[in-house]
TrEMBL record:
Alphabetized SUPFAM superfamilies for the sequence: NAD(P)-binding Rossmann-fold domains
NCBIfam families given in the database record: PRK07231.1
Record-linked InterPro entries: KR_dom (IPR057326), NAD(P)-bd_dom_sf (IPR036291), Sc_DH/Rdtase_CS (IPR020904), SDR_fam (IPR002347)
Lineage of producing organism: Bacteria, Pseudomonadati, Pseudomonadota, Alphaproteobacteria, Hyphomicrobiales
GO molecular function: oxidoreductase activity
Protein's name in the database: Short-chain dehydrogenase/reductase SDR
Occurrences of domain Ketoreductase (ranges): 15-194
CDD domains: SDR_c (cd05233)
Family the entry assigns: Belongs to the short-chain dehydrogenases/reductases (SDR) family.
Keywords per UniProt: Oxidoreductase
Organism: Rhodopseudomonas palustris (strain BisB18)
Length: 254
């Protein structure tokens, strides 16, 4: 029997989970799924908003404890402050889900330094900053870090070069940190979704939804719950021997 089984929060209902980008889209779906499993869930968003309040209300309606924190993940001080609020409320963090991200699509010739920095500051350094802030408070052994990459990291499309590169960096970071944190008993994995139906993809689906559905072996557009279930699995004891992997969840397109 591994020592991990005896760590605080081993049962799903006992875990403390921090989800960045938890006010909308995939992050909100992940937060709801963990709350439904009885976890104590903190949702982090750039600012306090009606969307964050609505997700927090859903978490509490599911009978789970929740907290909403606000800050810019690409700012190290904000990241530490948000983590500090969660630890002050719940005492520790068992699972960190780095779901917050930005996506801007431009022809390569139209790419500029401002766009590059905005994309990499949030998608890559934001992930770094949140991990650095959470690590001292993460259960060890037994802690889980779940990052969000993208299927576009391995099958990019025109106009997505900068976004795809940022998500490829997240996958590389995931692999490297899995080796660095493995001796502490902390796993680090990433989920790489294809197109998931959210506010962020509304324009893409309006333009190319039928074509995306036609090229998807499972014959439909992905939903947030499809990805949320995978996050819940990666946080479970059953995934304790899985680390350093980026799991593509795109309905078989890849």
């Amino acid at each position: 029997m591994s020592g991990e089984q005896n760590e605080p929060g081993d049962r799903p209902g006992g875990k403390v989970v921090l989800v960045t980008g938890g006010a909308r889209g995939i992050g909100a779906g992940v937060a709801r799924r963990f709350a439904g499993a009885g976890c104590r869930v903190a949702i982090a968003s750039r600012s306090a908003s009606p969307a964050a309040a609505a997700v927090l209300a859903e978490i509490e309606a599911l009978g789970a404890q929740g907290i909403a924190v606000a800050g810019d993940i690409s700012n190290s001080e904000d990241a530490r402050a948000m983590v500090g609020e969660v630890v002050a409320r719940f005492g520790r963090i068992d699972v960190l889900v780095n779901c917050a991200g930005v996506a801007e699509y431009r022809a390569f010739e139209a790419t500029d330094l401002a766009m590059f920095r905005a994309t990499f500051d949030t998608n890559v350094f934001g992930t770094v900053a949140m991990i650095q802030a959470a690590l001292p408070h993460l259960t060890a052994p037994g802690g889980r870090i779940i990052n969000f990459s993208s299927a576009l990291a391995t099958r990019p499309i025109p106009t997505a070069s900068i976004y795809a590169a940022s998500k490829a960096a997240v996958s590389a970071l995931t692999h490297a940190l899995a080796k660095e944190f493995g001796p502490r008993g902390i796993t680090v994995n990433a989920i790489a979704p294809g197109v998931i139906e959210t506010e962020m993809t509304a324009a893409i689906l309006a333009e190319r939804g039928a074509a995306i559905k036609a090229m998807t072996p499972l014959g439909r557009i992905g939903q947030t719950d499809d990805v949320a279930g995978l996050a819940l699995f990666l946080a479970s004891h059953d995934a304790g021997w899985l680390t350093g992997r980026t799991i593509i969840a795109d309905g078989g397109v890849s």
